[in-house]
Design goal:
With 294 residues, the protein is α+β, with helices and mostly antiparallel strands. The protein contains eight helices and 13 strands. A four-stranded mixed beta sheet has the order 6-7-13-10. The chain has a three-stranded mixed beta sheet with strand order 1-5-4. The chain has a two-stranded antiparallel ribbon with strand order 2-3. Residues 3-68 form the J domain.
Length: 294
């Protein structure tokens, strides 16, 4: 939404009476029923009506002037939770408080009353934080509303950070006989302690022992869908990447992969036998793991 003062063509110091006069002048000129087929006039009328509604609310005008909210009514903060959101501006353009101001024009007043009866309710925005695995696998969640009650939210498998889910008809009720607005759920995903996601692929760093890396082994490996056995080839080393096909994120009927990066771990406690073996071990061929750094 544009700056409401600019939309109405008034100064920031304008009085409520000056704002009302500016709105009436523009509304009579731009109303869609008086400009049939003129989409430009209809869009301008929506902007003018929204600006008038915004500036006619003393508290919202005060907070906007103070820089606490933007022109849509949303808080000016980087991280917000659903209970912190102000009522989001919808796509309505009715202004019930101003209908009586058109009594000098009975035809226009009746047009506006008819519009109000079919006006749509305001969309309401919430923020929902979910677990990493719920985002990958899908889940059912609940949002407790500040005004009481709750919203049941179906999280689809593969949802992404910042994605907005729409619950139709779960927003603010209409001022007249129109449909209720929608609830818009912005998804935030909490990080996982060992999984990360890139696109539809899951990445995992997997510790393995020296014995497993040198001799090869089958080791239990976590995936978002549960543990599976992963075959570690002989002579594996730290940085070896193994692919678990189809163990990634399911989205649009396709599933990504899980990429497992091995990390060879030495014992954290003293191992005299291992130390003695390595002290006397003579490799069959010279090997310098730092030769590329010369």
């Amino acid at each position: 939404m544009k700056d409401p003062y600019e939309t109405l063509g008034v100064a920031r110091t304008a009085s409520p009476e000056e704002i009302k006069k500016a709105y009436l002048r523009l509304a009579k000129k731009l109303h869609p029923d008086l400009n049939p087929g003129d989409t430009g006039a209809e869009e301008r009328f929506k902007e003018v009506s929204s600006a008038n509604d915004f500036l006619s609310d003393p508290e919202r005008r005060r907070r906007y002037d103070a820089g606490e909210i933007d022109a849509s009514g949303a808080e000016r903060r980087q991280h917000r939770y659903y209970r912190d959101y102000a009522e989001a501006a919808g796509d309505r353009y009715e202004s019930q408080s101003a209908y009586g101001d058109f009594t000098d024009d009975d035809v226009l007043a009746e047009i506006l009353r008819r519009r109000a009866r079919g006006a749509r309710g305001v969309d309401q925005l919430y923020r929902l934080e979910i677990d990493f695995l719920d985002a990958v696998n899908g889940a059912q969640k609940e949002i407790l509303l500040p005004q009481g009650g709750a919203l049941q939210v179906t999280i689809p498998a593969g949802v992404e950070e910042g994605q907005v889910l729409r619950l139709r008809g779960k927003g603010a009720p209409a001022p007249g006989a129109g449909d209720a607005g929608d609830a818009l759920i912005e998804v935030a995903i909490a990080p996982h302690r060992f999984f990360t996601r890139e696109g539809d692929d899951i990445h995992l760093d997997l510790p393995v022992t020296v014995t497993e890396a040198v001799l090869g082994a089958e080791v239990k490996t976590p995936t978002p869908g549960g543990k599976v056995f992963l075959k570690v080839p002989k002579q594996s080393t730290t940085g070896t990447v193994l692919r678990l096909k189809g163990r990634g994120v399911l989205r649009a009927g396709k599933r990504g992969d899980q990429l497992v990066t091995l990390k060879v771990m030495t014992p954290t406690q003293p191992e005299p036998e291992l130390e003695a073996f390595l002290a006397n071990w003579k490799p069959a061929s010279p090997y310098d793991p730092r030769q590329d750094m010369e």
